[in-house]
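Record pair follows.
FIRST:
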Amino acid sequence: MLETTFHSLIAVLIVMFMVGVGWLFGKLGYIKKEHKSLMIKLIICAGMPALVVNNVFGNLDLGSLDRPLLLFLLPALSMLITLGLGIVLAKILKPDARRRGGFITMCAFSNSIFVGLPMNTGLFGNAAVPYVMCFYIVNTTLFWTIGNYLISRSGEGESHQKGFFKNLRKLVSPPLVALAISLPLLALGVKMPEPVVRLAGYMGNIVTPIALFYIGYALHEYGLKSMKPDKHMLGVMLVRFICAPLVMAGLSLAFGFGGMPAGVLVIESAMPVMTQAVVVAAAHDADEGFVAGGMSVTTLGCFVLVPLLMLFLKALGII
């Protein structure tokens, strides 16, 4: 238990330190409002597509996985269920139009790589990496389609949401294009040249630090009051920390899927809000302050959640 707590604490502290650097740079004037557009473009148009290519071709070996279909099916079902829960909660809690898409997206999708990967390798060892990658692929695909679409609708407001082709364009983004190209190539057995994978790794490494610096700056810009746990924030935490892992654990039991792979999926489902959600909210002029606050609060909450979740998984006999 002490080791589990230690790994949880380290992962959380790293994230919050980098957010703190962004906040400090904003306070000192090193990051300014006019820099936000460049940071968003670097993440969405350069870093994320490269990160997708590196993770698909550098870290995923479908042939080595046990029951690979379930490794994609269970996360997809879990995210769609939590997405539905987010929609229901949005109808009950009634967040305003600029916040609604971010609220629903925060309920459904988690930080599967920067927090989820070190958390799972700390808990289960390096054998967890391929299973994290499967969750990451599903998480990224659904976020950059459904999540991106929902947040973009919030940014535009209720009066600009009609038009099939306009709505269709919202589903297409550079990270999604990278996934749409990379996954079929991987399934066909195509090997990406090693220098290309390395280059993608270097470029993909910019995503997390820039996104966390951006979140820190957003917290400076909107004030730490954006982290105040109002009813909407509490709703997100309810789904992220209780409903999502319960749904994934229930699906694992229902499909007879257990052991370390199931444990990885449950831990991944309970990770904090995606850092990219903040960037997408800013890109579409949605309520980025709320999303930034939610990402920070749920990251801090991981420290308490993960040790309890491990005890829960052992009690159910999943791990």
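SECOND:
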Amino acid sequence: MWMIRDRSFYKRLFWLAAPLALQNVITFSVNLADNMMVGSLGELPLSAVFITNQIQALLHMLVMGLSTALIVLASQYWGSRNQQKVQLIVGITMRFGMSAAFLFLLATLFLPQQILRLFTDDAAVIETALPYLSLLRWTYLFFCLTQILLAAMRCVETVKIALYLSIITFIVNVSLNWILIFGNLGFPAMGLRGAAIATLTARVMETVVIVIYVAVIDKKLHLKVSSLFKRDKELARRFFRYGLPVILGDITWGINIAVQGAIIGRLGATALASVSIANVIFHMVGVAAFGTAGASAIIIGQAVGSGDIAKVKQYARTLQGVFLMVGVVSGLTLFLVKDPVLTLYQLEPDTLVMTRQLLIVLSVTIVGTSYQMAALTGIVRAGGATHFVLVHDLFWIWGFVMPSALVAAFVFQASPVVVFALLKSDQILKCFVAVFKVNRFR
């Protein structure tokens, strides 16, 4: 039987995926609101935010790699209800995550202009971005702490706290944006600096809330400060044996995003603004795919931990069908909403046309994203084949995507839309390998 007919499986998948998806909806709604409010200031501030966020994106992927490694290994221990091991894994993850955040903070403190120049050679964009970065870099520490604690809660199937936290963050961030960017309620109009203050305030607030929740309210993991500093050499070796390919894979993906940003950044302010808007709308529509992938990782990880391999195979077959359905629905949705959403922006005609074209590209590639991302991160990684996902990503990113996009952009002077399509082409190409790998059940 290809698809499971037991409704309880789908109910469990939904109740794990829905909070993750809703959390992403709210998170990306903040990004959409930021995008629209900053966009009303002009294409230059919007471009400045885009290149500054490339630094955040690299850190984000590093932390997501650590968090995924945490979920892959800790979910297996939680499947056998080994609370102490889960606590120790959270501690290992936290130490490395906070170290990375501190390094990013130091780099942007002492080399801000040099780092921004990696993403664009437009002096006006860099000059506009520097004041924004001067505040945004302080969010790195709070972001890492929050994300790792949320991942720890996800391991023990406490997923609703992330949703509630996202709602609070949305309200605080958007409200402060409205007040500080435009100068409402008697405050001075701070423009881009106001957006940075709003983001920093929201990050501090969400960290305070999750720390209080984990320390006082959580009744499953019972994580203590002392747990974060305990050491277990054997567990650390196991964490890096299974986790290092995951971490390196997400770091590689973060570098990929950064290099993509650098390529787009050299195609002009119009391309920068268009890609910034298209990516935000894409992520809003793609929340179902991200939520399903996250839920699948938990389900497969716990099934592996229980030792029931027949159940793992059955789950894997069914989940692939779910991934494809989610992808097709997401693609159609993105294609249909692109024009209504773009009416919310105040864009120059060239930017509007280019953004619409980019969204058409994404409405096709999102089908591949929904299948291959969820299959590889939700089934293959959680099933233990973490090295395969790393090699697979490295092959497509550096063997095809980057070379083809660079040649198209700087040798053939292709349009930004063609370059963008090549940068996203791996989302379709990876599907052919993913379907083969998953269904070998190794």
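COMMENT: The mean pLDDT is 87.
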